[in-house]
Amino acid sequence: MKYVDEYRNAGDARRMVEAIESIVAHDWTLMEICGGQTHTIVRSGIDRMLPKRITLVHGPGCPVCVTSVALIDTAIALARRPEVILTSFGDMLRVPGSSTDLLRAKADGGDVRMVYSPLDALALAQKHSDRQVVFFAVGFETTAPANALAVWKARRAGVGNFSVLCAHVLVPPAMEAILSDPGNLVQGFLAAGHVCTVTGYREYEPLAQRHRVPITVTGFEPLDVLQGVYLTVRALEADRWGVENQYRRAVTADGNQAAQRMMAEVFEVCDRDWRGIGEIPASGLRLRGEYAEFDAERRFDIAPPTADYSTECIAGQILQGRKRPDQCPAFRVRCTPERPLGAPMVSSEGACAAYYRWGRPG
Amino acid sequence: MCLAVPGKVIELRDDEAGVRMGRVSFGGVTKEVCFAYLPEASVGDYVLVHVGFALNRIDEQEARRVFELLDAASDLHEARTDPSSGEGGEGVW
Predict the structure, then answer these.
(1) I want to staple A44 with a disulfide (CB 3.0 to 4.6 A). Which of A138, A162, A222, B88 is the partner?
(2) Residue B85 included in any domain
């Protein structure tokens, strides 16, 4: 396939690793933000190819993993209502809430359906006008424009039986939270390329200046990730900080402005509770007042979820890069993709799932 | 979640609400894609698609820069073959 295989050449990767070896003189800890990059790193063994001086820690870039237990419990409560068809992306369905998950709610008779696109959920609402179709809208800035368009279309077409349960999260506030933590070890970031396809990377510059860190917008193929590491290490060794763009074939400084306009039309920034991390100010998106009628939390009278969730899962530490999945005592023993204790073992972007799938021992 | 896959535009049209839609081929598998955020796309372009939405056109010139950086970084300046010609001789992950 074009623009995929070219960036997976093993010989090119080796040359890139040699180039990194030739410039690294100090110990550095880098964080890749996106779970998609984590999977590339573990699948390709990039973390094992890099010089010992470079430590990669895995970031919070898995929206399914950071969705709060309270929101998942709300989705499950909605799925149990007979009039509701609860829709979401496949990754969301097996994430544990406080006592069960959406897939089990489906097995118990709830109408839970996986969709590929939010427009599929809207089409389902138009097809089943006697039912209430709720779309569990999760995602970072990459996904927000798609979900925004579904709501915008619903309002324009007067689709009164469509609503969204909004769990959107934003990347820069999470990076700010990591960098502001007194125990932070991260010295440079590989920023999430596809988030930046939408947002551009101008908003990362103040973050890089304030914390004096290099931030490299990075793609998802092995050669992209290695070049992201190279550019970040090169900046660190030269005592430089700022934003660089490795993923130039897909990311511009200003991003996709039509997508940004639709996000701003439908959503506004709000505080958001991140699972395992806690509340991060101004780190989420909710529907603006004009679109409030499409907010599932307003449309349905849902009992406030209890969300008492105690387990030995250390997802919070995993998502902040403080521990690796193979440092968790439950990894592969009491926590597997079939019986997950936490979301990072379920999601296709979760760090624990990456370690499990690509054969890292516990 | 942020998985976005490059594909080739094979058809473009507007839907009944005036939203730009189209079909994109991913190595032969075609899917319906919304082009509301990429109305300037043309048939034959390579675009990056996420949850059924085209987010960007892949810039062919910039796509080559990855290999320019690779060559510069490893001090190899001999001309490369066209990267779009696919795999080199050393296997693909």
Answers:
(1) A222
(2) no
